[in-house]
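RECORD TYPE: inverse folding
INPUT: structure tokens
STRUCTURE:
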């Protein structure tokens, strides 16, 4: 297995065929024999298609009855007096910058609020979204656009509330109800209907969205049922594999079921228009990784990420537990009440609810007792979920439980700065006192995660011992894939002898999320030639998401390195098709513009970027790329004016000011350039790139002391940033401050003794 040099400077920026043929011939022979002996050929299996789900209840009466009235069944409904739960005779809802009025006209429900142009208007509610703890409402605009209102109904409190209170969300904000980020055709409806397709016509800029049925029905999880109905009509019910089902969730193992649920119960990006029930998750979606801001450093949920990401980190998932072990898949309710859900497995007999669950780690113990939970029986603290599934509120009033099934560790939470069940419930007490009480009860025990959270914290914070802890964790074979991917993302900040081999191994990892993380890291560690060699096999990867990522990275390389690759042409076509299936999105159009530029189609670049801004004027990456393109075409004045106008329209957007400053530098307008760069850094003080560029500009302008001070402040925020450390050391060395340079290198020695920068210092 090859590896890559770890001290490369960082930059932004056909034997199987014969076997298969033999298998086909053997199968053909077997089919001929069967036909010869039975007197007829097997019935051909047609492609499965959607059917009316009312036919399901004839054979599956119990499941159908459970589903009726469930959150799944009522996920999306036409707005009428039977489905709308909110009071549309209520007084207007006043937010900080907008007012929403409510009107009921007979059996119709209307709102009055500012639209995309900022002017108040009346809009008719077309559909309801959800039933509890809140209900949202969709308004239909021209072009078939269904938009989710910012005002929602609190079902328990029987009151209107705003999903983005006091955040200045007006028609210029990306979160405004009329904008692309609230377009339900793309963002929401797929998980509230069965058989949804966006069906966007780019030329007409309109949707003709279609669904088989409103609500999440049988076929949402089991796939199109036409062949299953064929099977039910067979006298002996034979011949069709899995009873004609596209997805056999009962016999498919926990991975099949979890990935089926994850299509909606995860934070993810679609890779096309709709999904294919028979495909693995990473063929249709790109789930979010354990990024800071989305997840706590120990893996618990932080932002709204639903259940998939946390559950697949858990010991439960590793042991074979599936969603339906705890939840009735048809009603959505828990299978049992209270702690009985957990004591199905965690019981005095140490016996799992299903034989397929790997129960070797189960202790035969009475968990539902004060001897275990140390709280009064029946109290909130005695509930398993209180300690092992702490919840957070999203969308105003929706409590979501963490599904990583973590074990409380208040001492670690204090040390690493993450949330903890004990500290959350006892927020009125001193955190160290809570940690001491926990230790008195349960003793000093090693972290259940084997040191993962601490190592990740060290790596992200640039603490002493970070590199050694990072590579020790990456050497583990028992890490959940999402956690390995999170650690891999830190590797570029910690170069050394092990880095190249770690990434080379990760490129061949059995889990797609790890291969994807390795692809991201590769461009930093490897030369273009090595990247081409390593990525070429991934153009034929078994997962669509991985193939797309490999294609994108290869597209950044010189033409001669990718043109001769056997699968390049097909991979490029596949990538373009994936983007073209999402032409309603500014993101896809921007991806296409970049691809056109990299693959020799300059005549299509500008048009694609301008179309992206028509789709979503607040998608600033398209603005930045358009300005760069104009300047690269010799239209610097046009680029400057475009960035100046954009910055005036969005004065709080740091990326636009930063780009304006850089363009002014290249135009020789250094004084005004410094002003723009400084504003960008002030708006985004944690952005190391902005601080680095501003420091270089200050230094070049003769403000050496100010440049050094800025870099010192940035390094205090992010000690692992090598680019900042190198620049600061260079400036200090030039100023004759050798002792301070030595201190910088000593700090680096503690953080990463393998760093190639240290070689030149000896």
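DESIGNED SEQUENCE:
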């Amino acid at each position: 297995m090859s590896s890559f040099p770890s001290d490369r400077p960082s930059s932004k920026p056909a034997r199987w065929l014969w076997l298969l043929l033999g298998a086909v011939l053997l199968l053909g022979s077997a089919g001929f024999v069967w036909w010869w002996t039975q007197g007829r050929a097997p019935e051909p299996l047609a492609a499965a298609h959607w059917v009316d789900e009312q036919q399901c209840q004839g054979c599956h009466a119990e499941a159908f009855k459970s589903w009726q009235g469930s959150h799944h069944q009522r996920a999306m409904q036409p707005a009428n007096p039977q489905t709308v739960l909110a009071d549309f005779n209520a007084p207007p809802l006043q937010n900080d910058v907008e007012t929403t009025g409510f009107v009921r006209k007979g059996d119709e429900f209307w709102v009055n609020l500012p639209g995309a142009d900022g002017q108040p208007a009346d809009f008719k509610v077309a559909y309801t979204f959800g039933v509890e703890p809140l209900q949202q409402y969709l308004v239909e605009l021209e072009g078939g656009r269904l938009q989710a209102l910012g005002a929602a109904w609190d079902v328990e409190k029987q009151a209107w509330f705003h999903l983005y209170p006091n955040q200045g969300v007006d028609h210029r904000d990306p979160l405004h109800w009329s904008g692309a980020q609230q377009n339900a055709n793309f963002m929401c409806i797929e998980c509230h209907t069965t058989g949804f397709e966006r069906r966007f016509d780019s030329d007409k800029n309109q949707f003709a969205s279609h669904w088989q049925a409103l609500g999440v029905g049988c076929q949402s999880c089991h796939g199109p049922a036409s062949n299953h109905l064929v099977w039910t009509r067979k006298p002996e019910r034979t011949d069709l594999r899995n009873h004609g089902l596209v997805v056999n969730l009962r016999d498919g193992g926990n991975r099949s079921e979890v990935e089926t649920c994850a299509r909606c119960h995860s934070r993810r990006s679609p890779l096309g228009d709709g999904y294919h029930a028979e495909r693995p998750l990473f063929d249709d979606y790109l789930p979010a990784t354990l990024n800071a801001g989305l997840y706590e450093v120990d893996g618990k949920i932080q932002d709204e990420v639903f259940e998939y990401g946390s559950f697949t980190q858990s010991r439960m998932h590793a042991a074979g537990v599936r969603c339906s072990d705890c939840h009735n898949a048809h009603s959505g309710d828990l299978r049992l009440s209270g702690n009985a859900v957990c004591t199905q497995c965690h019981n005095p007999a140490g016996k799992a609810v299903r034989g397929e669950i790997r129960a070797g780690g189960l202790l035969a113990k009475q968990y539902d007792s004060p001897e275990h939970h140390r709280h009064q029986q029946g109290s909130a603290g005695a509930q398993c979920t209180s300690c092992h599934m702490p919840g957070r509120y999203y969308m105003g009033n929706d409590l979501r439980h963490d599904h990583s099934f973590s074990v409380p560790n208040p001492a670690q939470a204090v040390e690493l700065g993450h949330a903890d069940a004990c500290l959350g419930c006892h927020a009125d007490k001193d955190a160290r006192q809570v940690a001491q009480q926990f230790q008195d009860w349960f003793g000093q025990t090693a972290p259940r995660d084997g040191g993962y959270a601490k190592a990740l914290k060290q790596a992200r914070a640039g603490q002493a011992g970070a590199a050694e802890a990072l590579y020790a964790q990456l050497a583990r074979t028992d890490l959940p894939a999402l956690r390995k991917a999170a650690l891999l993302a830190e590797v570029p900040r910690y170069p050394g002898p092990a880095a190249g081999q770690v990434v080379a191994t990760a490129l061949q990892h059995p889990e797609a999320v790890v291969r994807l993380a390795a692809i991201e890291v590769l461009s930093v560690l490897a030369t273009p030639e090595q990247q081409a060699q390593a990525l070429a096999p991934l153009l034929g990867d078994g997962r669509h998401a991985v193939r797309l990522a490999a294609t994108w990275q290869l597209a950044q390389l010189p033409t001669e390195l990718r043109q001769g690759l056997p699968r390049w042409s097909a991979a490029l076509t596949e990538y373009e098709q994936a983007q073209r299936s999402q032409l309603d999105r500014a993101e896809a159009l921007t991806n296409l513009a970049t691809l056109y530029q990299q693959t020799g189609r300059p005549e299509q670049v500008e048009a694609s970027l301008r179309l992206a801004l028509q789709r979503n004027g607040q998608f600033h990456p398209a603005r930045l790329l358009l300005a760069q393109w104009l300047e690269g075409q010799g239209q610097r004045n046009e680029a400057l004016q475009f960035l100046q106008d954009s910055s005036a329209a969005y004065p709080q957007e740091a990326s636009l000011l930063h780009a304006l400053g850089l363009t002014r530098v290249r135009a020789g307008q250094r004084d005004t350039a410094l002003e723009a760069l400084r504003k960008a850094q002030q708006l985004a003080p944690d952005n190391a790139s902005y601080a680095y560029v501003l420091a270089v500009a200050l230094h070049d302008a003769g403000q050496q002391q100010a440049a050094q001070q800025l870099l010192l402040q940035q390094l205090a925020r992010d000690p692992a940033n090598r680019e900042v450390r190198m620049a600061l050391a260079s400036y200090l060395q030039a100023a004759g401050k050798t002792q301070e340079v030595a201190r910088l290198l000593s700090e680096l020695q503690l953080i990463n003794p393998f760093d190639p920068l240290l070689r030149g210092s000896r």
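NOTES: Residues 452-690 form a domain with the Serine Threonine Protein Phosphatase 5, Tetratricopeptide repeat fold (CATH 1.25.40.10).
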